[in-house]
Amino acid sequence: MKIPAIKKLVENYKLDELIAAETAIVEEQPLAIEVEGDDEGEQLTHVLAAVWILNEMNDNGADFKTALRAYTQKVRVSIS
Q1: What is the Cα–Cα distance from 63 to 60, expressed in whole angstroms?
Q2: Contact at 8 Å (CB) between 51 and 15?
Q3: Lowest CB count within 10 Å: 17, 19, 71, 76, which one?
Q4: Would you say 47 and 29 are in contact if contact means Cβ atoms under 8 Å apart?
Q5: DSSP the chain
Q6: Half-sphere exposure (CA, 13 Å, Cβ side) for 38?
């Protein structure tokens, strides 16, 4: 998971574009947007993170840094 790649997605794409990218990755189809990542797994991680962060920003009025912090805390808890 690379924070700059997630930030780029949040800043440059709308929620529907990211959801379409998620579907394309899962269905092994070509992407309509540019998603950084060493492989499809990393690309999917970046897209899922961007979707979560955008939802957090839209639903709770959080700024990017706050939403990113909440996401990374969620990931840490799920890992431990």
Answers
A1: 9
A2: yes
A3: 76
A4: no
A5: --HHHHHHHHHH--HHHHHHHHHHHHTT---SS----SSHHHHHHHHHHHHHHHHHHHHH---HHHHHHHHHHHHHHHH-
A6: 2
**What CA–CA distance (Å, rounded) separates 13 from 27?**
20
* Four-CA torsion 41, 21, 5, 7, nearest 10 degrees: -140
Report angle CA 18, 24, 29 to the nearest 5 degrees: 145
Q: Which residue has the tokens 């540019």?
A: 34
Structural domains in the chain (count)? 1
Rounded-to-integer distance, Cα 20 and Cα 32, Å: 8
Residue 66's domain comprises 3-79
pLDDT per residue as tens digits for the range 32-72: 999 999 999 999 999 999 999 999 999 999 999 999 999 99
